[in-house]
Amino acid sequence: MNGRDELPDERAKRARFGRRALAGFAIMLALVLVVAGRFVFLQVFEHTEYSTQAKANRVRLKHLPPPRGLIYDREGKLLADNVPAFRLDVVPDKIKHMDAMLHRLSAVVPLTADDIQRFNQSLKQHHAFEAVPLKFRLTESERDRFAVDQWQFPGVSITPYLTRNYPYGAAFAHVVGYVGRIDEKELQHLDPDRYAGTTHIGKTGLEKEYENLLHGTPGYEVVEVNANQRPLRVLQRVPAKPGKNLYLTIDERLQKATIDAFDGQTGAAVAIDPRNGDVLAMVTVPSFDPNLFVNGISQADYAALLENPEKPLLNRAMRGGNPPGSTVKPFLGLGGLELGLRSPDTTVLSTGTWYIPGSSHGSRGYRDDTRWGAGRVDLIQAITQSVNTYFYSLAYQMGIGRFDEWMAKFGFGSPTGIDLPGETGGVLPSPEWKRKTFKQPWYPGETVIAGIGQGYWMVTPLQLAHALATLADGGLAHTPHLLAATSDGLGTQDIPHKQPPPEQLTHDPADLEAVKQGMLGVVYNPLGTAYQAGIGKGFPYLIAGKTGTAERYSRTTEAYNNDKNLKYLAERHRAWFIAYTPANHPQIAVAVMLEHGAWGGSAAAPIARKMLDQWLADTPPSERPPIPVTAVANAPSAATPKTP
Amino acid sequence: MNAIATSLTARAFRIGRRIFSRPRIDLPLAIALLLLAAAGLTVLYSASNLDTGTLVGQAARFLIGAVLLVAVSRIPPNLLRAWTPYFYVIGLLLLVVVKVHGEGQGANRWLNLGVFRFQPSELMKLAMPMMIAWYLHPRQLPPRWRDLVVAGVLIGLPAFLIVKQPDLGTALLVVASGVFVLFLAGLQWWKIGAAFVGLAAAAPVAWHFMHDYQRQRIVTFLHPENDPLGSGWHILQSMIAVGSGGIFGKGFNQGTQSKLEFLPEHTTDFIFAVLGEEFGLIGVLVLLALYAFIVGRCLWIAANARDTYSRLVAGAFGLAFMVYVIVNGGMISGLLPVVGVPLPLVSYGGTSAITLLAGFGVVMSIHAHRKWTP
After folding, report:
1. Is the pLDDT of residue A11 over 70?
2. How many CB atoms lie within 10 A of CB B123?
3. What are residue A591's phi and psi, to 5 degrees?
4. Gyration radius from chain B CA atoms
5. What is the pLDDT of residues A550-586, one digit of tens each?
């Protein structure tokens, strides 16, 4: 351009510079292209990947745990409730020195060794950025104190939550059960999506049995956060679906009346509606306060429960069991009739002692309760007076095979299938069972004593109530159950809970009638074992019952113990009473077991009567069967019930 | 109607041309710089979360820079050349002062001048090519060994002071701007190759003298995924920002990475990532093209310059300017380790913008005085 003005040397310099400038520009352009290529790679080929990462950066899922379903009794009384409470949460990520922080914190909010141990355990189950609960159910003063000092504890916060509350405490501890904090073992089996954000799970009772119904479906919030994880806005919100509310068959008033009737004695009682298997009451005393377990029971409280000799944690109504004693007699008697071994008129001579036919003289005899026996008795009299000889001979005649087969039909020896976890089936003595348990052969004498509910027999009050309900409902066996219906909350229709179909166990109503007559005699005949207790007096309906007194220890001598004092007997005996009413239209069947009762008739029967009184008070007159005029007029007399 | 419009347009064009030709400013370069400043302010406004204070502050710096640019463009290159040694020495002294009195986060880089803070090392980016060009101007080219040694000392002295701040990134760029003068002066290719081999051999030695944080940056650059929440955070978040932008970007003020503060330093060193996130590949390519045009124009002006000094200064300044862009772009896209290099005329920061515009003033002066005048 300006070449004319320049010196030749200057022209060479300019040309050389031009080449260099071009080379430099080319190099720069190449490098720019490399950078541009890198952007193409990131923004075109890797775009999807980085978009996902950008979204993962800013979007957080916040779980909304569902409110747990409520549990009501049959009248709509709240047995398990959710109440608002406050807890201390710790985000481990934000704590530099955890131990030092806990130490300082315990000066503000008292922390027990239990709290810290549990907290350390749950630390392992959570991510470092997740809040871990440290202390549940803060008191108001703890809350206030912490609020003042909160600035000293970054990463520690007060979180409101709903906690489980059992308003009736110990009364339903063994039925409703309780929830507790999810432990490591449970965590392995839980669906992490369903339980995201949930801290508690049903541990026992109905809370455990119906965990799936009660739990509900968690919701979630999609939250946009900044780099400091501070939530800025909610992008999407799916509310949690609360768990289903449960309506039980159980009646709080009957439950309470039963507990009161025990008056501090140890035992258990179950009441069932024979018409459908509804469990109306299920009582174990002593019991415990389930609220203690919800947020972790303290070592001291737990030790006290474990060391209590009356074992309040044992659900006597459906676990373990005791020999049923004479309460098996109506069932065995019915078996004799149904299997065609005897008719209602067949009589047996009771002389005070019964020997296995054909056994040599001087071999072991089997005793009646009275020294000289009851004389010649038919089935009705045998049940009324609880004549052992009749049932010794019947059991022997039946043989252990048929005996077991028949008794098993009424549910003895296996769980009833009630909707509660942990039910045991007791023991129905059988040669197989004995071989398996003791590796010993079966002796004929064991068949004999099985006939009066002694020996290896073990029965739970629930089993006995269930068998009695079956008897009362004309041999129709309904599986006992506690759950009547579920609902999705206010304003929704209750959904009845489906029950398995009942099973007919007997075929001749006449057989059942004879057994019923015998059981009426127990209450109303002056010779009846419960007559003295007077439990039929003043009750508008006929009560059919049976006493039972099981021996805790086998007799060591042949001598009679009648002169022993009651205290001695009470220590050795289990007192039973089973009853149903109204005898002609059964609506309630109860089984009462008293651990330290001397005799079934005198100790257990009055408890059963109080339960029946409560049932009468509970049932509105419109739902009661008509009162038979003759029965009301003559109920206390011995003869009337025998002519239905 | 049409004729009126045409004549009006022609008239406006003539007036504009007269304004720009009086201070004899290169119109294409000026327009490119204006576009770049506008783009820079737009991205900065978004990156600062629509903070008007930041926007106005930066615009004010651009205005100061523009005034400086016009002023410098009126000074003949001869005069600039005569002042060069003083300029260089003042820059060197300021580096010493900043070493003693400076302030900054972890490193002494800034001088507080009351009104604004001033970064002498930025000044050196302009003083360095001017000084080497001044030295080589009267000498025979390509430079001989003796000249190379002198140039090495002239480059090494300020570089050493900047490394000691410590600011390795800026030091390397200052060295580059000096070396570009030697390159444009016709330094033999074999010597350039030998220098590269020598540098590669010296790398382990350099590693030995590095600060821990500098080593950490290189380790992190090689394996950012090892420490995604720690020192790998910058690179990773920047790559996420760029990659998630895609071809068309998320739109102005829609970049979640910068808005939600995942992207660190998003108004300064990492502003390129904001551009990549919000304006996508298209925005990135347009910006790179703009830079390339500016550098090309600088080199074209250099090629048409009057004397050696002018050629070398304008050419080296242009090449160095491009290097800033390449290093910053490479850094935020994960090609290069994180070094504190701003994106020229886009990143928020006073000294850099003003110095750069003053540098373009020198280029404009060279363009204006390209004709041989006695």
Report:
1. yes
2. 23
3. -130, 125
4. 21
5. 775 544 444 445 545 566 655 667 889 999 999 999 9
Strand-pair partners of A366: A354
Phi, psi at residue A377, to the nearest 5°?
-130, 140
Q: How far apart are CA A466 and CA A450, in angstroms?
A: 20
User: Please, are residues A582 and A542 in contact by the beta-carbon 8 Å criterion?
Assistant: yes
Residue A20 to residue B186, Cβ atoms within 8 A: yes
- Domains A65-248 and A252-289+314-482+503-642 agree in fold: no
> What is the spatial distance between Cα A627 and Cα A633, in angstroms, rounded to a whole number?
10
Q: Which residue has the tokens 């939250």?
A: A223
CB A206 within 8 A of CB A483: yes
CB-based burial label for A124 (10 Å; 0-12, 13-18, 19+):
exposed
**Neighboring chain A residues of B308 at a CB cutoff of 8 Å:** 13, 17
What ipTM, to 2 d.p.? 0.89
What are the structure tokens assigned to A259, written together?
């507990």
The answer to whether A379 and A342 are in contact (CB under 8 A) is yes
Contact A469, A579 (CB under 8 A): no
B77: number of Cβ within 10 Å: 22
Residue bearing tokens 């290097």? B323
CATH code linked to domain A252-289+314-482+503-642: 3.40.710.10
| Among candidates B243, B284, B330 on the partner chain, residue whose Cβ is nearest the Cβ of A50 | B243
Residue range A65-248 forms a domain whose CATH class is alpha beta
DSSP A553: S
Q: Count the neighbouring beta carbons within 10 Å of the beta carbon of residue A478.
A: 22
What DSSP designation does A181 have?
A: E
Q: Which of A247, A255, A213 is closest to A482 using CA atoms?
A: A247
Phi-psi region of B240 (alpha: psi -120 to 50; beta: other; left: phi over 0): alpha
Would you say the C-alpha torsion B299, B300, B304, B306 has a positive or negative sign? Answer: negative
Residue B373 has pLDDT above 60, yes or no: no
Closest CA to A262 of A627, A575, A497: A575
Contact B280 A43 (CB under 8 A): yes
* Residue A125 CA from chain centroid, whole number: 27
Written as six digits, the tokens of B201 are 């051999």
Of A10, A34, A46, the CB nearest to B243: A46
Whether the predicted pLDDT of A635 surpasses 50: no
Taking CA–CA distances from A29, the nearest residue in chain B reads B292
State yes or no: cis peptide before B204, omega within 30 of 0: no
**Residue B136 exposure: Cα atoms within 13 Å on the Cβ side:** 36
Of the candidates A24, A36, A232, which has its C-beta nearest B285's C-beta? A36
pLDDT, residue B46, reads 92
A82: enclosing H helix or E strand: strand A78-90
Domain boundaries, chain A: 3-45, 65-248, 252-289+314-482+503-642
Q: Which residues pair with A269 in a beta bridge?
A: A283, A592
